[in-house]
Every structure is written in C-alpha cells, then in structure tokens.
Design brief:
By secondary structure, the protein is α/β, with parallel strands linked by helices. Helix content is 40%, strand content 21%. The chain is built from 22 helices and 22 strands.
C-alpha cells in the first residue's frame, strides 16, 4: 500500500469510526480484584491497518497522529461507558502528541464529561518507548492533565529514553515495569535487582508499580516474592472485546512474609452486618440507618457479591438540606454507593491485610474492610479492631523473637507446628544448618559471623516465603522453614530449597577475603584442638513431611527434622536431603524377662 493509499485508509477508519478497543485487565493479586483495564486499539479484522504498530506508523508518516489519538480515546471511552465497566481505564498516549500545538487541549476531559465518566477513573499512560523531544513541554502537559483530575502512569519503564527522569520529577500515580524485566525474572538475579530497586523508589514517593507482560506462574510467584501485587499480562487475560472482571483464585498472591510467629487471619476480627442489594432505593438504606443507631456501614451486594458500601455519614449528608430527600429518595443504591471497597478473603493473614491498608491511599482507622468467602459476602472487619489485634499479637511475639534476625524463635516455631498437628494439616519442615560455622567465627570474629547469620535469614525470606508460610530462627546458625501443603507441593519444596543452596553457594564468597576464596577455605583449629582445613561455608538442609497421626507434638517433629539435617551434613558441602519417614524412630522397651 502506497503512502497516499495508507493515508486515505487511515482517514477513512477515523471518519467512519471503525477503530475499536480491546481491554486487558490490570489486577491486584493481594485483594483478588481487577482494578482496571488497559485499552488497546485495533482496526477492522484483516485490514492493512488492523494492528496498532502499523496504525501509528502511518499516522506518524502522514502527520495524522493527533487525529488518530483522539479517535482512539473516543472509541475507548465510549466502549468503557457502554459496557458499564468499573475501575480504572488506562489510556495509552504518545507523549509527543501532548506538545503538538494543533492537538486540541481539553478534548479528553470533554469526552469523559459527555459520557459521564469521572476523570479520576482515567489513567493517562505515557510510554517511555517513544523518543521524547521536548521534556519541558511534556511535563507541562502532564501537569495539566493532573490538574484536570486525571491520573498519570509511566508505561514501559526501563525500555529507554527518559522514564526515570519523568518519574522523579512528576511523581506519577503508577509506573509499569517493561515486560523485558518481567520475562523469566525467576531465572535472572539482575532483573530481580532492577525490580526491587523500582519498588524501593516507588515506596518513597507513593507510586504504585504494575508489572506488565506476565505469562507464567513462575514469573508471577517471583514478582509476589519481591512485593509486586499489581499485575498485567496474558496469564490474567489477553486483550479482548469482552473484558475480564474476575481474578482466578490460583493467581492470587500467596506471598506471606513472616514478621510475626502467628497464623491469625482476618476472620478472627470479623463482625456480621446486615446487607442491602444494589437495586434497592436509597430511601431503604436511610430507613436501615435510622432504625439501627449503631449501624455505621451497609455492604451493598449484587447476586451475593459485594459491589460497594454505603456509610451512615455520607448517606445522611446526601439526604440533608432542603432538597436532599427529594433528590435521593428514589435513586437506586447502586448510584449512590461507594464503589471498590477494600475487600479481602476470610483466610487472609492479619499482617497481609495490615500491609494492604497501609498502602491504600484513602484509608483511615475508622473505615471497614469487606471480608469475602468464595467471592461471596462473609462479614466486615473494622480497621481499628484489626490494628488493635495485630498490636497485641506483635507484643506477644516480640518477647520470643530472635534478637539478631527478628525472626520468630522456638516458642513461635513450636506453636505453629503444634497447631498444624492438632488440625491434622499436611505440612513439611526444612531444617537449615551451616557447615563449618564455628571455625569461620574463630577466624573472622563473632561480629562478621552475625552478618552471615542475618544474610542467611534474608536469603531464606526472599527465596522461600513466596511458597511457604513460616520462617523461624532456632538460634545460632540453625533455621526452620515450615511449608503448608495447601500452598505448595512436595516437589516444589525441594526445588525451592535447592534454589536456596544455589544462591547461598554463589554469594557466600562476599563474606571471605580474597586469599581464602582462592584457597577454597580457611585453616582453623577443630573441636579436638588440631589445625584443620575447612572449606567455605556451605548449607545443609534436611526436609521432612510429618504425619500428624504419628507425631504427638513439636518434639517428635524436631527429632525427625534433626535426623534429616544430620543426614544432609554427611554428604559434605551444600546438600538437601529429603527424609521420607514421617515419624521419629521410637525406642523399644526391653522386657526384664527377656
């Protein structure tokens, strides 16, 4: 197709409104909900300009970029409104259009107002893939968008040009990590370090991070371990005319960093409140609040699923004034409720929920959290009672935490094991112990030894808490990780322990002087007082899967795990030994008559 023909074809598509959007979900895997959709434009099927790369290439060549951008935004906004979609709409914008003097300013706001969409629902995505020629004008344009009420995202962060500079100067609401850094991230320490750095920066300036291009569960689990919860990619849903509205339970964030030695869930602070359907009149909600003076919140449901909330304070405010009653009495609850309440599953841990509300922009201690079970309404928990409960538990566990690593100590470890035995739950215990740690301490000193211990604690947390629910520190150079089989399979446990070994062996050299690295170890005095050569520190892992019917208490599990750890140490070097016995050996009593 010639340039002239391409230009005419593009003009025809724009004028005849033949461009249509596909929507790809952006999900919050911690809350288990779709927070919005990115709009991706398409031309007619089998058309020469069907795909966006060709569309925008022709538009750029033919000086029609502004016209195409407006047509894309109009199509996306119109379809978003037609399908009555909730959450955010992420709109891709070529940054160079924003500085184009011929580009009509205020057009996106006018379109959103015409369609009845709140500007706060719309996220303007500025892609880093385009070479930005005039960053000052671009900054002014972005500031203008923000003043109009739109949210801002930097797309494809890490792809090149000036994304980091814009980020530091504009403090966008979202940054999207380029898919290059997401692909096979579980196999690349460099990519993990990059994403970890982005997360650290984002936390300081209160920017949310979205990982793009997630295609495998391995990538997702690694991102969860790093702390990513906002996700996008084929794993959650491909771009489609019919948008995805739910997150598969298997893709939810099971990452549980263990900061306390307790397994309490949000269910422990739940209260049951009456609910109201979204197709009820607002007057019915007012009657409920009038009848029950203690009622401060009404969860709103549609087909047993919570879709919003109505607070007493805001409803009474609506009905106040001369015309408040007349204006609102016959409105449906769906039209006056607060959408997208904070919602969590009833089995979510108290610490996970605490982290969630800490990161939520509009949270205060008097708000409530909707608690769900199997995606249906389960109850309500006040944030105030949640924080009170966490404080009580943290004070209790702080008494027993290891002072060096701050990990749960023996009291908490034993309690968790006894709980699992009592509940007859399937679980595994991995016992980690360093080889040759005493001679290392003798040569390098206890202060350096403490640094190694703290590093091992961090290594276990970073590598294993994505698929386990507890990391504990017995004392000295001994650690325990407890895996719940509801979250991870036996094969995955061994693979995860092997990852610890690989990372340990790769990075332990940082704690040695160059001469000892070249020698492959150190010369020190052994326990018998004889000079001996000891190889570099290694880590032995003994894994056991106790049978709750055969083990009476944590004492039995400890015996079993200790035996497995001793077997692992016999192999020399770093080694993982999986013992298939499920109970410790019992001493046979010998009869005095035998």
């Amino acid at each position: 197709m010639s340039t002239c023909d391409s230009r005419q074809a593009l003009i025809s598509l724009i004028e005849n409104q033949q461009l249509f959007p596909l929507f790809q979900p952006v999900v919050d895997t911690a809350r288990g909900c779709v927070i919005g959709h990115e709009s991706l434009i398409r031309g007619p099927r089998s058309h020469a300009l069907e795909f966006p790369d060709k569309l925008f290439s022709v538009a750029n060549e033919c000086d029609l970029l502004s016209e195409l951008e407006l047509a894309c935004r109009y199509a996306a906004l119109k379809e978003f409104q037609r399908q009555d979609m909730s959450g955010k709409l992420f709109l891709n914008v070529n940054p160079n259009v924003l500085k184009d003097d011929s580009h009509p300013h205020g057009s996106t706001l006018r379109l959103s107002q015409q369609l009845g969409l709140d500007p706060n629902q719309i996220v303007i995505e500025i892609s880093e893939r385009y070479p930005i020629e005039d960053t000052e004008n671009l900054k002014e344009a972005i500031i203008h968008y923000r003043q109009l009420g739109f949210m801002i995202a930097i797309d494809d962060l890490g792809a090149g040009y000036s994304g980091l500079k814009l980020w530091s100067e504009l403090h966008p609401d979202y940054v999207k990590v380029d898919r290059y850094f997401v692909q096979d991230i579980h196999e690349s320490s460099v990519k993990r370090e990059f994403v970890q750095s982005i997360l650290s920066l984002a936390k300081n300036i209160q920017t949310k991070v979205i990982a793009e291009g997630i295609e495998t569960k391995e990538e997702l689990e690694q991102l969860h371990t790093l702390g990513i919860k906002h996700c996008q990619g084929y794993l959650f849903g491909k771009p489609d005319k019919s948008p995805v509205h739910n997150v598969q339970p298997s893709l939810l964030n099971t990452y549980k960093p263990v900061k306390g030695g307790y397994n309490e869930t949000i269910a422990s602070v739940v209260n049951s409140l009456e609910i109201i359907a979204d197709d009820e009149p607002a007057l019915e909600a007012l009657k409920r609040f009038t009848k029950n003076a203690a009622l401060s919140l009404l969860p709103v449901t549609r087909h047993e699923k919570v879709v919003g909330v109505i607070s007493r304070e805001k409803l009474l405010e609506r009905f106040s004034g001369s015309y408040g009653h007349a204006l609102n009495a016959n409105k449906l609850v769906a039209h006056i409720m607060e959408k997208e309440p904070i919602a969590v599953d009833w089995q979510a841990s108290l610490e996970d929920v605490s982290q969630l509300i800490t990161e939520h922009d509009e949270t205060d201690v008097y708000q409530h959290i909707i608690v769900t079970r199997n995606n249906g309404y389960y109850g309500v928990a006040s944030i105030k009672s949640l924080l009170r409960k966490i404080t009580e538990l943290k004070i209790n566990d702080a008494r027993h935490a290891n002072p060096l690593t701050q990990l749960p100590g023996n009291v908490a470890i034993n309690r968790v094991i006894n709980e699992k035995l009592r509940e007859q739950r399937q679980f595994s215990v991995a016992y980690f112990d360093l080889n040759h740690f005493k001679p290392y301490n003798d040569i390098y000193g206890y202060e350096q030894g403490d640094q190694v211990i703290k590093w091992v604690a961090q290594l276990l947390q970073k590598t294993l808490t994505g698929c386990s629910n507890f990391v504990g520190h017995i004392g000295g150079d001994d650690f325990v990780v407890i895996f719940d089989h509801a979250a991870v399979t036996a094969d995955r446990i061994e693979n995860s322990c092997q990852k610890v070994i690989e990372r340990f062996d790769e990075d332990i050299v940082q704690f040695y002087q160059e001469e000892h690295i070249k020698l492959g170890g150190i010369k020190a005095v052994n326990r018998e007082g004889h000079p001996t050569f000891f190889s570099l520190l290694s880590i032995a892992v003994g894994v056991v899967s106790p049978d709750a019917k055969l083990c009476e208490s944590h004492h039995d599990v400890a015996l079993l795990a200790t035996e497995a750890k001793k077997e692992a140490k016999r192999f020399g070097g770093s080694y993982c030994y999986h013992c298939h016995r499920q109970a410790p050996r019992r001493l046979k009593l010998v009869s005095s008559h035998s």
